[in-house]
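Appendix B, example 12.
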Amino acid sequence: MPELMMKQFGRKSHDFIMRPPEHDMKHTLLVGSVRSSKTFTAHIAKNIVQLSQYEIPLNAKRIMSGSTKQTFYRNVLLDLQGIVGKENMHYNSANGELMLYDKLWFVIGAKDEASYKQVLGATVGLWLGDEVVEYPESFLAQMWMRMSPPGARSYLTTNPGNPYQYLKKDVIDNKEFRKRMEVIHFLLDDNPNIAPADKADIIASQKGVFKLRYIDGLWVVAEGSIFRDSWNEAENLFDGTLEVDGKPIELQSEPIGLRNAGGFVDHWFSVDPGVDHVQSHLEYYDDGDVVWCVAEQRWDSRKEMRMKTDGMYADDLIKFGAEKCQIIVPPEAASFKQELIQRGLWVTDADNAVSAGIHTMSTMLARRKLRISLRGCPELAKRIPNYSWDSKAAKLGKEQPLKVEDDDVDSCRYGVHGKIPAWRVTSG
């Protein structure tokens, strides 16, 4: 068994990792702030030290889940492979089958209402679930039912979210369910691997509702303007003139040589498709530190009183300069994606998890690592401060922006979240 030499354990992590699964409750939920070692503790260290040797009935399955298979691969499997070695871990991303030592696991995504169908008919003996606040009720409810064999165990991790959400209201706060579930709260101080300066930077990067959730570990409702505490026009905008208190202020110019070879490390486009509303295309350059959103292309079918076809929008993207670049499109835009693919364009699915995507964008704005060209993206710049939470949906446990002039910001969310690795979002 490999020695976990690269990280220290806090006392809370150590006690949990070393406790045999036989002594755990049926369900264990690690909840709390970002970077508090929840994921490493539950899904990597506990797995290697204890669960890789834990026997379950022969007909039972071992399940690992994330909001998507891709996010679980990034958040868990890459680190896991780095510890156990490639010779002890073999992952097939196509079918989600993972051989860890001599045990077969199934890795699945649980981001939408249809996800529960992946476990229909299965008997589950072990379940590791990451980011479970993102899972729909139908998936979680199905998993509870599938964990019927004696000795079945689940180990789940999450950041706090909306207190009206199913996981909080009907599971954590359910006295009957809590008889079978231990909830362990983690905060930044539970991770001894973060230097004081880095910890201060992480705290400073979180604003508003995200600080309350991801630093203080509280379940709170998201209200009002989404980027109210993250957005600063004078510092997040560049390339143009801003009027503040009736006085013109010259913004920073686009960095010299940004678009030249050697001036950027990546160049891509994002799309928010529109049928009876705005179709928004955005262009980005990444210099390795800051993501610069340099240009927008949009078509408002209501304003223009004319709808475009997928082919016409594909023509627009080519004219926009996207022919040889990655184009990030939400997965539900099937027909438009197919049109782009038939043109030979490079298309990838956006990670369109709403809450996680907003958190990524908010953190990058707060750290001034996402900059918007006022001259190149005037509509996006105008809509970011007005991007607001839907208060009615929040009381139903759903976290989403108001569907009012949200197209350009949604496009930016797709273009940033999933594209920028997690370590860059919060690292100083």
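Residues 1-6 have pLDDT under 50 and may be disordered. The radius of gyration is 23 Å.
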